[in-house]
Amino acid sequence: MAQPQQERAVRTRAALIKAAAEEFDLAGYAGTSTTKIIKRAGSTMGALYFHFGSKEGVARAVMAEQAADLPELTGRSGLQHLVDLTLELAHELRSNVLLRAGVRLAVEQGAFGIQDDTAYQLWITRFKEELIVADALGELREGADPAGFARVLVAAYSGTQLLSRISTGHEDLRERIVELWRYFLPAVATPEVIGKLDFGERGPEAVQ
C-alpha cells in the first residue's frame, strides 16, 4: 500500500513544480499566488504546504530543479561541447518553462528576500568541467583559468539572457550568445581552435 502512496506523492509534487514554473514564468514571484499554483496543478493547499512549506519553498524548488529535464548533449567534447551547451540553453530558454522560470526566479530572488546562488553555482560547475576538458585538450590559451572563466561566462550569460528576455522574449538569444562568444573566444581559446568551432546555423565564421 505504501508504494502507490509514494508514487502518488511523487506525481503530486511533480505536478505542483510544473504548475508553479508555469505561473512564475507568466507573472514572476510577486504576481504568483499559491492559489493559482494549486488551481493549475489540480491539487490542494495541503499538498503544496506538505511538499514545500510555503510559496518561497516552491520557488526554491523551481530554481533548484531548473535543469532537471534538459536533454543530455553527446558526441563532442571540450570547447565545442561548451559552445553547444550554451546554444542548447538558448534554445531551451525559449521552449522549456521549468528552465525559464528557474532562471527568472534566480534573477528576481532579492525581491522576495532570499540570496541563493545554488542555481548559478550549478552552471559555474558545469561550465568549469567543460573548460577543464578543453584545457587538457590544449584548446585554451596559456594562463586561461577554467574556474575564473566559468564564473565570468555564467555572469555574462545571465545578463545576456535577461536583456534578450526583456527585449525580444528570447527570440534573439541565440544570436546574442554567438556574439558573446565572438568577444570571449580570442581571450581564452587558441586561434586554431576558434577556426574549427561549429556554431550551427551561424557557422564558425561568426566568431572569427
TrEMBL record:
It comes from the Bacteria. Residues 10-70 form the HTH tetR-type domain. It comes from Streptomyces longisporus. Residues 33-52 bind DNA. NCBIfam families: ScbR_bind_reg. PROSITE patterns: HTH_TETR_1 (PS01081), HTH_TETR_2 (PS50977). Keywords: DNA-binding, Transcription, Transcription regulation. PANTHER family: HTH-TYPE TRANSCRIPTIONAL REGULATOR BETI, HTH-TYPE TRANSCRIPTIONAL REGULATOR RUTR. This is ScbR family autoregulator-binding transcription factor. The keyword Electron transport does not apply. Gene3D superfamilies: Tetracycline Repressor, domain 2 (1.10.357.10).
